[in-house]
């Protein structure tokens, strides 16, 4: 065995991996080679120093420990937000849908609150009479097509050849009144949203 | 039978804060000790430990129970330490004046912060010299040596922690030992 081989075996020895027969060979070499013996002693000292220097206690007090534990536990997010965060990470589409829903809802609410004044819409408004917030279809008059009234009272004496929709208002039908289509009243925000959605869809479809 | 850490990890994953606190209790000292030996600064060691636990918490769902929990957590903490040592190198190598305390590959030796605990002030001259010699090791050797001599990990385990073949670990331990032997030979 030469000294380079011996050196390699020494490392194996200090790694705790030296095979038994190699150990006896190394021992034999060390017996006859003072340089390698010296080197072996140096390694042994180095090992001891490393253990001592690295494994020595770091001198932390119980208070240091508690403070760090506290810091760590405060830095991790709580249960709920963590689960929610994980869930959202798993289903990013939900976030997008929720945001979209929020924007739509906000715009509906905004338009819901905005419309406080009387609005009359229809394809044929020539024979309609407006008195204050009353929208009157007088006797003998005929409206061709749909009539939509927001924030007002509909007084129908004549004839409507289409749908009558009243939003946030009331319908007052005389016995002579005639509505060919549907007469509807919308008074709640939810209905309003439904109505808007439906008309959007119908608009898109047509 | 599942190891206690794996059971705690499962509970923590379900949102059990107490279980997570127990994990912190089990590993805080080990991680701190390792980080302190790697970085030589209380402040930095504490930051690394906190960051490591935060990563553990965030990645509990990715913990593979086929791996020892200690291996996993040491890997996270070791990587954070190595990153810091590398950043230090990057910062200090820009500073041409501070070559006085450089290690064998240009790593600057950062003096530890002034909040040195009393037990550290009582260090023997021998310990101080050994500590300084270790501090001049490059990060890749230092991490191997710290895991080996502080936590008494087998070469196999060190390979798992650092995600490298055991032959590489071996080479590094041998070179590190050789380097330190030479370094200390002249001083002790």
Automatic annotation (TrEMBL), chain A:
<dbReference type="InterPro" id="IPR041916">
    <property type="entry name" value="Anti_sigma_zinc_sf"/>
</dbReference>
<dbReference type="InterPro" id="IPR027383">
    <property type="entry name" value="Znf_put"/>
</dbReference>
<keyword id="KW-0812">Transmembrane</keyword>
<protein>
    <recommendedName>
        <fullName>Anti-sigma-W factor RsiW</fullName>
    </recommendedName>
</protein>
<feature type="transmembrane region" description="Helical">
    <location>
        <begin position="91"/>
        <end position="112"/>
    </location>
</feature>
<dbReference type="Pfam" id="PF13490">
    <property type="entry name" value="zf-HC2"/>
</dbReference>
<keyword id="KW-0472">Membrane</keyword>
<comment type="similarity">
    <text>Belongs to the zinc-associated anti-sigma factor (ZAS) superfamily. Anti-sigma-W factor family.</text>
</comment>
<feature type="domain" description="Putative zinc-finger">
    <location>
        <begin position="3"/>
        <end position="37"/>
    </location>
</feature>
<keyword id="KW-1133">Transmembrane helix</keyword>
């Amino acid at each position: 065995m030469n000294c380079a081989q011996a050196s390699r075996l020494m490392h194996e020895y200090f790694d705790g991996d030296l095979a038994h027969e190699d150990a006896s060979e190394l021992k034999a070499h060390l017996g006859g080679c003072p340089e390698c013996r010296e080197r072996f002693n140096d390694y042994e000292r180095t090992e001891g120093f490393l253990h001592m220097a690295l494994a020595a206690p770091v001198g932390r007090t119980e208070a240091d420990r508690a403070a760090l534990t506290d810091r760590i536990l405060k830095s991790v997010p709580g249960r709920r937000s963590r689960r929610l965060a994980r869930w959202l990470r798993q289903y990013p589409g939900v976030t997008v849908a929720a945001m979209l829903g929020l924007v739509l809802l906000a715009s509906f609410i905004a338009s819901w609150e905005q419309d406080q004044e009387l609005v009359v819409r229809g394809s044929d408004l020539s024979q309609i009479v407006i008195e204050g917030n009353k929208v009157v279809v007088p006797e003998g008059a005929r409206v061709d097509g749909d009539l939509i009234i927001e924030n007002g009272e509909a007084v129908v004496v004549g004839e409507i050849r289409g749908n009558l929709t009243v939003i946030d208002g009331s319908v007052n039908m005389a016995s002579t009144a005639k509505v060919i289509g549907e007469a509807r009243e919308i008074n709640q925000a939810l209905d309003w949203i439904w109505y808007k959605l439906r008309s959007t869809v119908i608009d898109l479809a047509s | 039978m599942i190891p206690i850490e794996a059971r705690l990890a499962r509970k923590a994953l379900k949102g059990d804060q107490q279980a997570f606190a127990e994990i912190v209790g089990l590993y805080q000292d080990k991680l701190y000790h390792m980080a302190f030996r790697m970085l030589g600064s209380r402040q930095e060691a504490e930051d690394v430990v906190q960051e490591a636990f935060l990563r553990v918490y965030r990645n509990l769902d990715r913990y593979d129970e086929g791996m020892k929990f200690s291996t996993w957590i040491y890997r996270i903490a070791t990587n954070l330490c190595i990153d810091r040592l590398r950043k230090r190198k990057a910062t200090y190598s820009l500073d041409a004046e501070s070559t006085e305390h450089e290690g064998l590959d240009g790593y600057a030796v950062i003096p530890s912060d002034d909040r040195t605990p009393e037990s550290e002030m009582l260090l023997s001259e021998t310990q101080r010299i050994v500590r300084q010699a270790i501090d001049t090791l490059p990060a890749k050797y230092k991490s191997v040596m710290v895991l080996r001599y502080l936590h008494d990990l087998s070469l196999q385990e060190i390979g798992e922690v650092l995600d490298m073949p055991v032959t590489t670990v071996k080479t590094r331990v041998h070179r590190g030992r050789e380097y330190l032997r030479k370094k200390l030979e002249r001083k002790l």
